Here is the input.
Amino acid sequence: MIQKPYLLFTGDALNTRSTKTAFGLRDWVPEAVIGQWRLPEGRVDLGLPMLDPVAAHAAGARSMVIGIAPFGGALPETWLPGLVAALEAGLDLVSGLHTRLSAIPALAEAASRLGRTLHDVRHSDRTFPAGTGEKRSGKRLLAVGTDCALGKKYTALALARGLAARGHAADFRATGQTGIMIAGEGVAIDAVVADFIAGAAETLSPAAAPEHWDVIEGQGALFHPAYAGVTLGLLHGSQPDALVLCHEPRRSHIEDLPWAVIPPLGEAMRRYLDAARVTNPAARFVAISLNTSRLDEAAAHAAAADVTAEHGLPVFDPLRFGLDGALDHIEAVYGAAQ
Amino acid sequence: MIQKPYLLFTGDALNTRSTKTAFGLRDWVPEAVIGQWRLPEGRVDLGLPMLDPVAAHAAGARSMVIGIAPFGGALPETWLPGLVAALEAGLDLVSGLHTRLSAIPALAEAASRLGRTLHDVRHSDRTFPAGTGEKRSGKRLLAVGTDCALGKKYTALALARGLAARGHAADFRATGQTGIMIAGEGVAIDAVVADFIAGAAETLSPAAAPEHWDVIEGQGALFHPAYAGVTLGLLHGSQPDALVLCHEPRRSHIEDLPWAVIPPLGEAMRRYLDAARVTNPAARFVAISLNTSRLDEAAAHAAAADVTAEHGLPVFDPLRFGLDGALDHIEAVYGAAQ
Here is the structure.
């Protein structure tokens, strides 16, 4: 297991878009985050104490998390001295990159020499069985989306915490690197061998008590030209009873792919249900989660009201408003805590 | 590249179901197949000369293909003496199993000592980019199905050869281990890391001349609880203009998973088109391929007539009848060879 608390490293990042791992940890496990560190050319500020590895270790940190996704997924050479410095200061390293830290000789050598651990949370030596689609006991909710990077993880985290606060047995199930760092466990579903996507998802939310909720972080989008295979395998393996659609109101096409148009929400939900019912005929949407971060307060509420009026579902923004309405509806459909 | 011709090994297989690799090679590259070999307890007969590795090598064989998929995907210990004997007789080994031959010490040692090559066609050291969905030039046809193991590979092979025979520039694009052994190249799409399924499919059928056809072997089914992620990523990355639906008339549920019901063909095609149009809005079905192997001649023709009447598409069985009607329709839609 990964040793907490964390020092968050944002490298040479110039903007917040590539550092969602760092922001995710700051927002969702603040008790496990002790400070931030960056390279001299970096510009991202998490609003945390700025500590170098030695100071962070002295303050109690046990691991440094690479909280930035570099363009292309490979780790730049210019980060290496900083990463080695963290190992020398007594910190383990935690990475969600496709490149394995353990495959970089300078890091492997330093970790071995110093007795530190390199956590490559995107990778796993675990193997998974093929999926079967056989019904498992327990209740499952999956956050799905109209694109990547618009709030599926935060939606699942907020709902898992909200259900737990109302007395339900509920577990957040992480499927991406940030989620795994937050939860301390999970499966990086996009790194699994293609044949075993659904099987890995089945393993992630095993049979549970009938009243137990697994609240599962979704990945990608059914309409994403690159990642829909991951999305569909995760959907089938999760066999969700309840679905929550995550959307960013001003996004009309998949980010960076202007030819990949996002369908209207009703059409999106129809297609998710078509797919979900392969492994759970009772699947239904219970709420819509809007990422209103680019809207002012009035516009955010207006957007939520419009979506509720059109689709007859409670609408919330997990960072802003409406969670209780969504939880009320979930309890109305599936029952309150016993 | 894999050295031909082949000796086909069927191990201890008792029935034809687990030996479709061997039958596929016998049927589709008979000129590259010199004989068969099996263990004493094996019962499958390919109707080829029975040759042990020494006799096969003397007759010209250069590789022995493991033409059997063992239950669970792992290679039984009891096969090892026979595989080592093949290496000692001068044959390379070709495997489509999940288990790598090169990971089995006895085989790795013998191959190294004897200068033989171990081909693990399901695996690849190639890495692939993420998909983009950007439109590529050239025409593409993808065989999709209502389940695994009902004729997608044979359908694509028959159409590729039929188009070529009519003067079209056409390439069969292999996505599974048997297809790769037949074609001599391809990508085992189910062994790719999940994030790169669509990207691998994009790589497999690169931009080509406008009149060129890539005829792509499909995998799995959109309704398969284990493998739909592979199916969808391959569909998106292939961005097919033309789709052919492959079906086995008496199959009502996914093989071995009785709870996974196959939808009616019209519904199946609607869902494939929903998905295909993410990367090619012009995608359409051009034919239906029926696996009529379990029907007598009259029943096979009656089934084909029923399906044509209901769906208004030419119907064929690539091993039996109707290929010309399907090719006529494809040429009516997309044009005859120039």
